[in-house]
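Aim 2, interim progress. The first record below pairs a target sequence with its structure tokens.
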Amino acid sequence: MAEIAVTVVIDRLLSLLTEEARLFTGVPTEVKDITRELSYIQAFLKDADAKAEKGDTISHGLKTWVQELRETAYSIEDLVDEFILHFANPPRQSGVIVDFLSNVSCLIANLKPRLEIAYKVKDLKLKVGKLQEESSRHGFISSFEQGSGGSSDAINVQWRDPRVKALFIEEAEIVGIESPKRELINWLVEGAAERTVISVVGMGGLGKTTLAKMVYDNTKVVERFVCRAWITVSQSFKMEMILQNMIKKFYEAMKEPIPEGMDEKDVTSLGGLLKKYLEDKRYAIVFDDVWGLEFWGFIKYVLPENRRGSRILITTRNVEVGCAIRESRFHHVHNLQPLPPESSWALFCKKAFPGSCCPSELEKISIDIVKRCAGLPLAIVAIGGALSTKQKNELEWQKFNESLGSQLETNPHLESITKILSLSYNDLPYFLKPCFLYFAIFPEDYSINCAKLIRLWVAEGFVKGEKGVPLEQKAEEYLNELIHRSLVQLSRVDDRGRIRRCKVHDLIREIILKKAEELSFCHVLGDEDSSFYGKFRRGSIQKGTNTISVETINRNAQIRSLFLFDIDAVPMLLTGISFGISFTSFKLLKVLDFEDAPLYSVPEDLGNLFHLRYLSLRGTKVKMLPKSIGKLQNLQTLDLKDSLVDALPVEITKLKKLRNILAYSYQFNPGGRTLTPRGVHIGEGISSMLDLQKLSYVEANNGSGLIEELGKLRQLRRVGIVNLMEEDGPSMCDSISNMKYLESLVIFSKDDSILNLQTILDPPICLRHLGLQGGLSRLPNWLPVLRNLVRVVLVNSRLSYDPMEVLQALPNLLELGLSNAYGGECFCFTELGFQKLKILRLFRMKGLKTLKIHEGALPVLERLAIEPSPQMEVPFGIHLLKTLTRIDFWGMPREFEFSMRPQSGQNYHIVEHVPNVFFHGFNVDG
């Protein structure tokens, strides 16, 4: 795991050598030597990590070596950042004499730190050289010699695979799998004659192997497939051994002699032999624990498609693998779900209280323990088994629950949980490991904003750049990879199918938190360990107040990131008003996250955090930013959403690396049921911030100067403008024409006046989200060109004609919201209109009487909301919308509501097919 630290440092050194060459006078040679020797050590570390992951006994000497290497790597990273801190700001040119004096003064001022850094470089070079020499003593194999590059390469190490036990579990011991079992058996024994492939996908510990074995041994399956085989693939498979094993299993099942000389055959010969043997047979085969696409990419060609009803069942943790087999309509994917609460409880009681029931005094703590398992059968069985050996004592069980993290490491009953869940972590490529460890920073069961997580990864330097690909896009690919590997769970997906929030299973968090602490990657600080004496790179203060020890933070002056979660008061040492400590003490900070903290002001010395890349004051009570913010030359993200900041200092325009300014909030207007937005004021000079990608929301009432400057920000992906005046519309159109990468555009007019946006000559074709609030004489004539639009919201447009004729032709529109957008009496949805629309919201259409829905319109609509339309007639066309799952009616006449009631309502047949119909909270179950 020291590989992560070394990789980060090597990347940092290479960046320093290429991008910061102007800072050096004589140091580059030393830095190159350190980089070269670290790269050599890195090759050996892959072998060290792999041995640790496979369960090898690690000697005390090796542990010491790895720890020293990790600390040395961190020291090098500190040195690099200190070097940049001292020498990254050359004096400005001010004339010959002044410039000369300034240079002399600067030279004298920098002489001492320059000498100190030079001595440190030489010292670290000696340390790295010594560590490199010692690597060979520990018997490492360089990954250069292996010809491999990942932690999951095949290594001949014997270890006990805890998954084997799943093959010998009695069916009577299993709870909650009847439904998926029936479905899988049906797919195996019923259906078409074509070869059918079934994949079972889910995170480690969900019981994929157990379920597959129950299905494989089922009487119906055994009777239908005489020729069958069970093959365990795993991470480090060798195709020759897989094919040899398959041939042996099939021949044994058919009670035929196994062909001789198989050990001498190569992959091609074995594949040909197997394919020929199966050509005239109806076969069934289970491939358990498939990890990568390359396995299926080969094996599918040696399993003949002979139209005899053959079946292939695959279990995998990787969603991408499960979906890759879906090559025809005869292929199925079953996403195995966690056990529901009632099944989880039944399984736990069966293991924790064999032959009896849960005592009443243990019921509450038992429910808490089962809840932490979150439906994971592996965890429920292991923890229930461990507790069955303990006294039936509430205090004893409470201690067990509170120390579950350490129990996972030390309790032999829980060894299988750690090993099985760690397999997925160990299989990660090295560039994804720090991204995954980052989840340890967040509290237990915490739902993480995905966009925020992506910005944090970018700020930390975890994301490798590619030419033409934004770092945020690459980071999103990283997150999707972790989701596909079943390591990260979705906790909120929006109506358009976009992942908004994610989380990790509580037990996975416990495991990665332990790994992160071993690496000094991060440490969680709370009331219980407010005086932690170790070192860490990232601190997460949770559920604490002012009890966090000053010494704890002060001992970690090299800290890179600091997070606050669910605290009652910001520790005084972070406000710069106690103990003589200020932000200067944390000069290497990259991330400072105060989100939702009870913070009322920011110290003036904030500008001393030269390396700061991410600053979040979201949800705080801060009203003003210090002028020193202009010194944060590396700042990438400034998050002021839902804070009280309404204006940015003029110095903000000095921040050339700023990528995201998020500074908006909404105030709900109960009378009109509308949201009034508030943005921030930004002065002139914003056009110099060429890296800006997100800018929302900005007050436009400073005049057309600001609007014109926006046109020079050609990397913008998201823009929000508040209080745009009618006369500034043409300037806004010109600026939008220059935003080739724009994906989201939201504009609010001043006092709901007219939005003059007709003259965009070159519309941004990448636009996916369009929101316009303000009067429109007509829909913009460029709207039909935007074929990538998935969401359109029009508020207070007050159009005099039905806009559906234009909107329903948008080919990819998924969501449409109209609020006081039309003053007419009828909306007409014509045949073939809105072919992909899933959500339709019609609000505050007081004159609306009729919805004409023709057959063929809205074929995939799932949700419909209408509020309040007092003159609305019953929309009889709803009965044509067979995919509807929910309808919301607000403020309708009582006669309208009564007509839709079950049994007694004369119009109930119109909505009878819709599972949920709501009237002011009254639920009509269809």
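The second target in this work package is listed in the same format:
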Amino acid sequence: MTTSQLLAYVAISVFCVLEVNSRDTFIAAVYEHAVILPNATLISVPRKEALVLMNRNLDVLEEAITSAAKQGAHIIVTPEDGIYGWKFNRESIYPYLEDIPDPQVDWIPCIHPNRFGHTPVQERLSCLAKDNSIYVVANIGDKKPCNASDLQCPPDGRYQYNTDVVYDSQGKLVARYHKQNLFMSEDQFNVPKEPEVVTFNTTFGRFGIITCFDILFHDPAVTLVKDFHVDTIVFPTAWMNVLPHLSAIEFHSAWAMGMGVNFLASNTHHISKKMTGSGIYAPDSPRAFYYDMKTKEGKLLLSQLDSHPKHLVVNWTSYASGMEALSTGNQEFKGTVFFDGFSFVELRGVTGNYTVCQKELCCHLSYKMSEKRSDEIYALGAFDGLHTVEGSYHLQICTLLKCKTTNLHTCGDSVETASTRFDMFSLSGTFGTQYVFPEVLLSGIQLAPGEFQVSSDGRLFSLKPLSGPVLTVTLFGRMYEKDHTTNASPDLISQTLKEKSAASALKH
């Protein structure tokens, strides 16, 4: 056999192996973890004491990982802060941190634990992946020393990062992501100098990584989908629910639908901070979700997903722009939703067609209730402006929501239960963005899988009478270009393609 024939044979053989090993579907798992927290102190503890706490949490995560693997899961996502909690300053978090190398070093910590210093947490995570033949996504802290030659070096001589790591089914470190958009209270961590766009390849699709607050911003979340064409997002989070539009299961499932990707969201479980809500979401519908403000235990979710999900292309303004903006006259009133000033109109009949506008946004609603109750009021609202509390980001929102009481001044307040059922609804808006996330939330903070869909002309409409009373039906739009923060540099994509995209070997 000639050299050229041999190379051709090898190429064909590799192609066939990849074809055979690639999967059309896979089983995903997420674990909502009731984190064992350290003592409420901001004083640094010895490293040994920090390891004791982290191993207690890892003991719980080990049970979840083992159980998921036994049920056939190919990948499991665990929460942000899931190994040590969240109440720290820069000094007190330090004993919990490890130096996490770039995945390009080709490292299996379970086999070579001391190659990059003392890394017992990374070793244990790697062994959990390897011993159970499953991809493991976890959130830990990374530390990187620096000195005065680096003008951005913090005074304590180190960078500290909120970090996601991924180990493949062989235990190999295949991805490391430093969180870009830190939440207000995360002053124990640094923002990376450049936004990182991190992906990893598997036999069941291409994956991207974001963490918690990242989901509200363009980089790296949108970049991963639009420019790096990932199939699935893994999402460790410590999400505090904010109604009516930002409860975890509600917004995360809407983001999956709006962006056309699978979304694996693993939340911490801490009910005193309103932290609950995990899920496995496909673009067409939620596949599994969990929300529980009563129990204190964690929860493992599993579901099958398509490796390469299909995505409907939507023109979010097409339908609404062809409708007349009906005058609401004196019927319009003002209300507040999470500190944002909405324009509202009350839904007065059991059925109706309403329009409400604010600035460039007009929202149109057609609906039919099962009955018009005297003890509940619903309103159609519009908001077009910059949200400035707990972050700064520009929103365009059309929302049908239940008011807290029969007083119109309570429209927009947090509401968890309702009694009014809707036989049908159709909601649309004249959005100035292609990034719109469709939400439907029912009484008791429940989703409505398979009960609604989005049309290519931008309507969010019911497929049948909803299975429960409605809290909100919402089109949540983001106008990233109007944010006050600067977007990533133009060469972000080319830079990260070369340096930040962590690709694993195509193995199970």
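The CA atoms of residues 297 and 416 lie 21 Å apart. This observation will shape the mutagenesis plan for the next reporting period.
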